[in-house]
Design brief:
This protein is α/β, with parallel strands linked by helices and about 250 residues long. It is about 45% helix and about 15% strand. The chain has an eight-stranded parallel beta barrel, surrounded by seven helices.
Length: about 250
C-alpha cells in the first residue's frame, strides 16, 4: 500500500475530507503551472489531479514537471486513456468504469496499459469509477459510451459502489462529469459514504465553496474541482478552506 492510499484510508477512518484541484492539460498551458502551483501551495490543497477525456495537446508531462518544480503537493493522474500515463506523477487512479457496460473501460484498456503502468513506478490506486447523471451529456459520458446512473437513484449507485468494493477496488469515485449542470446530490454522497469502507472521491459540477463544504459534510473524503477553477483560479483558496471548515464542523459535532 502506497503513501497516498494510506493517506486516503486515514481520511476515511477518521471521517475527514480533503480537496483536490483537477487540471486538464488540454485547457492549461505549461507556462501557467507555476501560478497554479503557488495558488495550491497557499491554499494548502491536498492533491493536484492531472488528466482529461481527450488530451489533444500532448503537454501533460511538461505541465507536471512545471508544477512539481514549485510544489510538493502530490500529483495524481486521472487518465482518460492508456496514453495518459507518465512516471513524472506520484500516483495513478487506475479507473474501471463500473457504472457502464463498455468492456473496453472495464478491462480492455487496462490490458493495453498494464505494461506501461507496471514499468512507470507509479503508486497505482484501483478505482471504481461511477458516472452520475448531471443534467447534460458530458464529455466523459460521450467518450465512454456509457449511460450515467440517474441522479435520483442513490440505491443503484450504492449497489454499484458495493460491487466495486467487493471486487477489491481501493476507492470509489463518483463523477457527474466536467461541465455538469447539476452536481451529485448530498443524499447520494451520504448514502454511499456511510455504507462503504473505502475512500470516496466526488467531482463534477461543483461551482462554489458552499458545495465543497456540503459534499465534505455529507461524507466525501476528497472533493475534486476542475471547471470552476479554470474560470476563476482564485476559488482554490476558498474551496480548500471550505473543505477544512467542514472537517472542523464534523469534529465539533
Amino acid at each position: 500500500m502506497g503513501n497516498i492510499l494510506t493517506q486516503l484510508r486515514t481520511l476515511k477512518a477518521q471521517n475527514k475530507s480533503g480537496f483536490a484541484v483537477l487540471a486538464d492539460p488540454d485547457k492549461i498551458a505549461p507556462a501557467d503551472m507555476q501560478y497554479l502551483a503557488r495558488l495550491c501551495n497557499d491554499a494548502k490543497v491536498d492533491y493536484l489531479m492531472m488528466g482529461g477525456s481527450l488530451l489533444m495537446a500532448h503537454q501533460m508531462e511538461l505541465c507536471i514537471q512545471r508544477f512539481k518544480a514549485e510544489s510538493d503537493i502530490p500529483v495524481i493522474l486521472f487518465p482518460g486513456s492508456p496514453a495518459q500515463v507518465t512516471p513524472y506523477a506520484d500516483a495513478l487512479l487506475y479507473l474501471s468504469l463500473i457504472s457502464g457496460r463498455n468492456p473496453e473501460l472495464l478491462i480492455g484498456q487496462h490490458v493495453v496499459s498494464a505494461p506501461l503502468v507496471k514499468a512507470s513506478g507509479l503508486e497505482v490506486i484501483s478505482t471504481g469509477y461511477i458516472i452520475i447523471e448531471g443534467g447534460i451529456q458530458t464529455t466523459v459520458s460521450y467518450i465512454s459510451n456509457a449511460m450515467p446512473i440517474p441522479a435520483d437513484k442513490p440505491e443503484i449507485a450504492l449497489c454499484t459502489a458495493w460491487a466495486g468494493e467487493l471486487q477489491g477496488k481501493h476507492i470509489i469515485y463518483l463523477d457527474a462529469g466536467s461541465g455538469a449542470r447539476r452536481p451529485i446530490t448530498t443524499e447520494m454522497i451520504r448514502v454511499i459514504s456511510s455504507h462503504i469502507d473505502i475512500p470516496l472521491f466526488v467531482g463534477g459540477g461543483i461551482q462554489t465553496p458552499e458545495k465543497v463544504h456540503e459534499n465534505c459534510k455529507a461524507g466525501a473524503n476528497i472533493v475534486v474541482v476542475g471547471n470552476a477553477i479554470e474560470r476563476d483560479p482564485l476559488l482554490i483558496r476558498d474551496m480548500a478552506s471550505a473543505a477544512r471548515e467542514a472537517v472542523a464542523d464534523k469534529i465539533a459535532e
